[in-house]
Design goal:
The protein is α/β, with parallel strands linked by helices and about 220 residues long. The protein has helices at about 15-30, 35-45, 50-55, 65-75, 95-105, 120-130, 170-185, 185-195, 205-220; strands spanning about 5-10, 30-35, 85-90, 115-120, 130-135, 140, 160-165, 195-200. The protein contains 9 helices and 8 strands. The chain has a 5-stranded parallel sheet, sandwiched between helices. A hairpin with a 5-residue loop joins strand 5 and strand 6. The relative contact order is 0.19. Bound molecules: adenosine monophosphate (AMP). Adenosine monophosphate (AMP) binds next to helix 2 and helix 3.
């Protein structure tokens, strides 16, 4: 039974959440709710939300909670029946985590668990400096660890839409890591206290990380 699994992926920027999301969503029939991707889509389309988000994202700061929570509420309202959810990059602080519970309650859903990708800062900096993202489908690749081979979303033939995210520049990466340690890391204890935390080693090859993740998700069913 894989219907209606509701899972949070927690981890620093570059810890591998986005890379593993596509596989998890396909395998467990989950809707991918990535707040970072949603903000970038709005920035690309130059919407009011996108213009506002950009002022925070460019500095490595968090977009205000009310804006972010409203965006997630709208995404949840569009969910197909029987589909679970994979939250990637949300919640990012305890206020957002507090807001998520009633949002799920209202839909008669509950959180199955939170999976924390454990990765040291030095590894993160190396990963983000070589990360390239597809402008069309937001799938992340890496110049060394995960070079472009084929487009999983069939949007391009030879990676012509790959670009480096502006917020992957070294100075912004340092700011994002500071924000992560200060605001997001407390969620590890928050979900651990609720008995909703699983930790996995987020280092190693993509296949190895994927099988750790599948083991963790299977335990949540
Ligand atoms: P990500 O793609 O998850 O690394 O997110 C990129 C940027 O979008 C972050 O550095 C934040 O500025 C913003 N962002 C993404 N998710 C959130 C969130 N849940 N709350 C506030 N800001 C967010």
């Amino acid at each position: 039974m894989t219907d209606n699994l509701n899972i949070i992926l927690l981890g620093a920027p570059g810890s591998g959440k986005g890379t593993q999301s596509k596989y998890l969503c396909e395998t467990y029939n989950l809707a991918h709710i990535s707040t970072g991707n949603l903000f970038r889509l709005n920035m690309k389309n130059n919407t009011e939300l996108g213009k506002l988000a950009k002022t925070y994202i460019d500095k490595g700061d968090l977009v205000p909670d009310d804006v972010t929570i409203n965006m997630v509420r709208e995404q949840l309202a569009m969910l197909e029946n029987g589909m679970g959810t994979l939250f990637d990059g949300f919640p990012r602080n305890t206020a957002q985590a507090d807001a998520l519970t009633p949002l799920l309650d209202d839909m008669s859903r509950s959180l199955n668990g939170t999976i924390h990708f454990k990765v040291d800062d030095e590894v993160i900096v190396g990963r983000l400096s070589g990360r390239l993202v597809c402008k069309e489908c937001e799938v992340p690749f890496h110049t060394t660890f995960n070079p472009f081979q084929t487009c999983p979303a069939n949007k391009c033939s030879n990676g012509e839409y790959l670009y480096q995210r502006e917020d992957d520049q070294p100075e912004t990466v340092r700011a994002r890591l500071r924000v992560y340690h200060k605001q997001t890391e407390p969620l590890i204890e928050y979900y651990s206290n609720k008995d909703l935390l699983t930790e996995i080693d987020g280092t190693g090859g993509l296949d190895v990380i994927q099988s750790r993740l599948v083991g963790a998700v299977d335990n949540l069913k």
